[in-house]
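Troubleshooting: if your tokenizer reports a length mismatch, compare your output against this known-good record of 331 residues.
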Amino acid sequence: MSKQSGRGSVVGLPGWDRCAVMGVVNVTPDSFSDGGRWFDTTAAVKHGLHLVAEGADLVDVGGESTRPGATRVDEAEELRRVVPVVRGLASEGVIVSVDTMRASVAARALEAGAALVNDVSGGLADPAMIPAVADAGAPFVVMHWRGFLEGGNVRGVYADVVAEVVDELHARVDAVLDGGVSPDRIVVDPGLGFSKEADHDLTLLAHLDRLHALGHPLLVAASRKRFLGRVLAGPEGAPPPARERDAATAAVSALAAQAGAWAVRVHEVRATADAVQVARAVEGAREERRTPGAGAPEPARQAMDASGTPGGPDRAEPPHLPRPPHAEGAR
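Known-good structure output:
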């Protein structure tokens, strides 16, 4: 895998030499963390441009809240919310992802300039979604999903959350491939917070290497989610409001970047962009450390014996740090 595609590349999108940052624009009155703030088209476009200025590599535009208990909007309203914002951002040169479960909205957004379809249902909510994405040749985010969250956290019971999420995502990816979507245009997402409790989310984050084994680039969308509130509150405390979880989000973003995620999806970009940049710098230093003599003072380099061991044959080289797992193949 080339340096340019070291985080996993997706055909149809630029390659980044680090974990990309996906900013969020919710064109909704009821999203869990910022509902109503960007409901107006002009405000939404302005916010998207602000996210890019703060360091977002691409912007995810959605017109339907997927928080637990949210009621679905109708197709006409979702189109009214989403398409003008996509068109406005794309006209400014922004790489736009459309966050939708409807094939019609995905198709119209792609026509308006969107470059990526991000479907939290992985094509399950609308049978027309996969054919529409395949026909358009667009990259497609396949998220782990167990159904709509109306009425609460649906089917959040797991014997082994990592194994079950991997198996269910694998089956979903196979269905997407069978539907005609190219393997180098598929991204996978573990679906943090969707039919999962806090311990499930944390366990998945601790085992991102298992998700990389699916062979596609990985999107991690942890921003401001409930499990971060639980961690910050501790066993007895009250979780802080969603907008007070951005530092925790940045911490997860750095961990995901170090673990080889292709992108992280966040509401507040600057802190995460900085965290990802630091994680990338640390990884770069680790890579240099693996190269015999790299970064060593000149006397130390001269003291290397023929085997590359600093200080001659009587001095053992310190053990290398483990390499973070990387996505194989595309996402």
